[in-house]
Amino acid sequence: MADTDHRTSDRMTSDRRTTDRRTTDRRTTDLTKAASPAPVPTVICDAVDIVYRVNGTGAGRGAATAALNRMLRRKQPERAAGVRTVHAVRNVSFTAHRGEAIGLIGTNGSGKSTLLKAVAGLLPVERGRIYTDGQPSLLGVNAALMKDLTGERNVHLGGLAMGMSREEVRERHQQIVDFSGINEKGDFLTLPMRTYSSGMAARLRFSIAAAKDHDVLLVDEALATGDRSFQKRSERRIRELRAHAGTVFLVSHSNKSIRDTCDRVLWLERGELRMDGPTDEVLAAYEEFTGGPDRAGKAPAKRK
Ligand SMILES: Nc1ncnc2c1ncn2[C@@H]1O[C@H](COP(=O)(O)OP(=O)(O)OP(=O)(O)O)[C@@H](O)[C@H]1O
């Protein structure tokens, strides 16, 4: 398993974002002044590279020996010190605008989740810059839920963690519960979350995050976990979030979810941005690349 230094990452990222946000604010203001209907940028990725460093890969050595080895060989190349690098994102540039819903697609391991985490400020970039206007919220991370607490308690704490006031959490409690559909099959809300299926837990996380309007909402595969009626509710909510001037990023392997929700798609392959354009165009090229539409959602034009 990978072992990255999160404290360093967070600090570096927060330093970076403090500087970057100022720059974005300036750019945003300039753009707004130039022409009123001009799209307002919310996320700018400028030639971004992201590299993971995995410690403890000294062949056949235990973790303690590998750590000692790293200390002793600090000046030697990373490889010799038992550190392997994974270059997950390469030279990716794009600008997202307010009101856009952008799908992120690509085959397994192509760098989608990594890019999303970096936009959320949870991973440092190796090269390039990421500028964000407003606070990006990565669904499932910001609303970190505790499995030993009841669903009810998690709605409360998750809401606070997402930046809602106590008042707002109280007001939206029922709405969150109804949206999640957790109680449709019995009184699950008063049970600890460890008794939930992974789909139920994902639904609750999405429902808490979606109860708030976000500047930039980053959704990683959440829609794939729910049943069809939950997916429909989620898609409707994503459209509403866009209407409230936010920007939504959606990582999904379901081309149907992407087609139903997004008007623009970024296609990553081996960490590189292979295509950026209107959903239909990019999905058509991607489906040709992967050998056809996915099982979850065939392209309407191709259905008999
Ligand atoms: N914490 C980590 N440490 C080291 N390497 C990692 C880490 N997380 C991801 N990677 C590597 O980075 C690359 C991109 O992974 P990422 O999870 O971003 O891909 P993805 O497109 O989201 O994949 P999937 O569709 O399977 O979820 C992969 O080669 C993966 O092995």
TrEMBL record:
Highest taxon above the source species = Bacteria
Q: Which Gene3D superfamilies match?
A: P-loop containing nucleotide triphosphate hydrolases
Instruction: Spell out the molecular function terms from Gene Ontology.
Output: ATP binding
Residue stretches making up the ABC transporter domain? 72-295
Transport recorded as keyword? yes
Q: Name one Pfam family in it.
A: ABC_tran
UniProt biased composition (Basic and acidic residues)? 1-30
Q: Which PANTHER family match?
A: TEICHOIC ACIDS EXPORT ATP-BINDING PROTEIN TAGH (PTHR46743:SF2)
Q: What is this protein called?
A: ABC transporter ATP-binding protein
Which lineage ranks, top first, belong to the organism behind this chain? Bacteria, Bacillati, Actinomycetota, Actinomycetes, Kitasatosporales
